[in-house]
Task: structure prediction
Amino acid sequence: MIGYVVRRMLWAVPVCFVISVITFGLMHSIPGNPFDKMDKPLPAQVLKQLMAHYQLDKPVYMQYLQYIGNALQGNLGPSYQYMNRTVNEIIAGSFPKSIVLGIMGVAVALIIGVPLGIVAAVRHNTAMDYLSMFIALIGVSVPAMTMAWILIWVFALKLGILPVARWGSVQQAILPVFTLGVGGAAILARLTRASLLQVLREDYIRAARAKGVTEWIVIVRHALRNALIPVVTVLGPLTAGMLTGSLVVERIFAIPGLGKYFVESVNVRDYPVIMGTTLLYALVLVAANLLVDITYYWIDPRIKMSKN
Amino acid sequence: MKPNSGLWRDAFKRLAKNKLAVSGAVIIFFLVLVAIMAPLIAPRHYSDADFAAVYSPPGALYPLGADFLGRDLLSRLIYGTRISLQVGVLGALSAFSIGILYGTISGYFGGNLDNVMMRIVDILYAFPDLLFVILLMVTFKSGYGGEEAAKNPLVLGLVAIDKQLGGMMFILIGISVTSWVGMARMSRGMALSLREREFVQAAKAQGAHDFTIMARHLMPNLVGPLLVSVTLAVPGYIGTEAFLSFIGLGVDPPTPSWGAMVADGYQAMRSYPHLAIFPGLALAIVMLSFNFLGDGLRDALDPKIKQ
Result:
């Protein structure tokens, strides 16, 4: 177990390294410099000073090595756009909001999706099943920008019971969290249903029923334990979906999270902010996948058997 | 000799009985027609601005209303079909072709080659797709504005093609570069298990070339499952384009992308709610259709799942 965890964690190192190289390389292969999009062209002397100040006049590999050296010590450098803020400060201010949004999104997805899938599987081939799966299919297909529009229009503009945008209070969180979670809920519902249907056909379920266990206990105690294993694996990709979803949701609901800074930095070529946010996103994704793999390894004894 | 016609004909019959899948296919077919005939059926050109009609509500002159520049919403919606479908189709093509080749080679040969190829896939898999596409977009898009770029004939050529496509080329490249990774993983897994099957062993024993085995014995068996996955992935590609255009990193204005139209609609949401809802629903409908079709294909190709 420990060996496996360590191996998986070590694997994250080359992944992050390659991601940082690709990002850095792509960014610096853009002709021109980060300051040529200013309203007025800068005087040559000022530009030279700026380039020297941010060490952009050095060879790219030197810049990269220096950046990585600093990053490993926890210093992600200054922002070019917000002249008096560091990337660390920007991330410290915005990342917690994105994390809260993302975790609540995953929670909503689990709370809606898993029960919906269970109901559909238990009531297989009934109206209940078809209705749940139809809802789930719509949930998968409606993009966040459309979902958010409908939610805002109904709950904020027509009914006036929830605020249109911004972040800070519980009421303000409801619409963005729901927008973010509903797609994941639909995916989870479909997966839970498929997995549970498969498990319900197993012999040990028939054995449990034959010995007179009530249907409720059969589902909860015998079937769900195994049926939810594939659901765990999808939590990794789901986290990735939350990341990209948060870019849209943060924009629509004017939430000052990491997504806002990422999109903004990309537009103005704020190199250190692009690097910092991309690396952070990648790290979150790698960590989520790692967590999922470890959980999977831990809950499914068959994997341990096959590895040895 | 048609070795697979039985399987495919059966699958088609099952598909034809699935109402949702058929309705999905019909809607997609209809949208393809709309996209092809856009110049004929659109009442106006998508960039015609009528300043007297700014924000006009749905009516006789503008069936779905007009946007903030007085452009006909229906016409923009019709032309927008082109963008979404092109992205979907090209994304699917590259995902399918690169994925099946890469995965089959990796799975069939196994060993060190497989190891190296799959580690590459693992790394790409960990790279957040959308971030990668955004970085690509920015690199190329801001790239050709500079003076150095203007002297390079290759860059100029790419810029010309991109202009022709309404700024879509780099979206297509970005989606192509990222979309095959999952498909490659899947193909490799299947190739790995097929490799051990008797019919492959028999072909090997007869002295069939590796290339023949892959092309004749492995890939045809991967087409079905991959077709299902790719169909189900198309809404994702369409969503990516819409998303990029929504945040302003997608197509160049005035090219009518549904995502960009939704974004425009949000600007005037309070007073003119009709602006965002039509493109938003169009997106949902096209994505729903592909999901219907993909689900139907899966049930049709693997009847064991549905009982």
Residues 136 and 186 of chain A are 4 Å apart (CA to CA). DSSP finds 13 helices and no strands in chain A.
